[in-house]
Amino acid sequence: MLDVKIDQFSYNKNEPILENIHFNIKPGEIIGLIGQNGAGKSTTIKTILGLTKGSEHLVTFKQEEVLSYIPERPIIYEELTVWEHIELCASAHQLTEWEPEANRLLKLFRLYEKSQSYPKDFSKGMQQKLMFILAYLPSPDYYIIDEPLMGLDPPSIKVILEFLQAEKQRGAGILMCTHALDTAEKHCDRLIILADKTTIFQGTLQELKEVTGNADGDLLDCFTDLVQSKDVIYD
Question: Residue 82 burial (CB < 10 Å; 0-12/13-18/19+)?
């Protein structure tokens, strides 16, 4: 289990950016991290990844476990081909006999014919699919994913969602930051909602419906009701 405890994060002690964000990611579940722009989602992700300084936080998971990060904006090395990106990833993780799996993933994400091309010339959606291949190659225990469906066409979205479900079945824990509430409603086991830079809810959609008193509403309806009421729900 990956346990996240962010008591406070701030660049200036008098102006906290995050407060009281505590949650965990269990093996074999998908968690949706949602909130309005400026709610603190990106800073939460950066803190989990250890990319922020000065925060009062603790992120724990087993030393031997692997965490993969898929950013909203793909990170591409301009001088490397698709295959060279994969080789670099395999080398960094000291993987052996990884080529058959790499080829399977290239075919799955429809990049097999592009393996010797330079992804700097790809569309954002194609670059994003390369990020998924690189994230999967070391068979991670946890994924931290920021807006995974942004810029993808419908067939690619279907492939990504099926991929995430397969990884969930394999036992990976997945934290997915997304504005696509219809996707979160269908595919997330639990939800973490941020507003005013803190946690205002965490639980299932059914529990969110009970909190908001909107038994017939969808996630968008309940999210809107909760944010407007500003009812803060803590563990």
Answer: buried
Judge whether residue 17 has pLDDT over 90: no
pLDDT digits (tens, 9 = 90+) for 83-113: 999 999 999 999 999 999 999 999 999 999 9
Alpha carbons 175 and 191: distance in angstroms, whole number: 10
Instruction: Answer yes or no: are the C-beta atoms of 56 and 8 closer than 8 Å.
Output: yes
Q: Whole-prediction pTM value?
A: 0.90
Question: Tokens standing for 62?
Answer: 């087993």
Are residue 232 and residue 178 in the same domain, yes or no?
Answer: yes
Same domain, 84 and 41: no
Domain hosting residue 91, numbered range: 74-139
* CA–CA gap between residue 88 and residue 93 (Å, rounded): 9
Task: Looking at the structure, tell me whether residues 118 and 152 fall in a common domain.
Answer: no
pLDDT at 54: 64
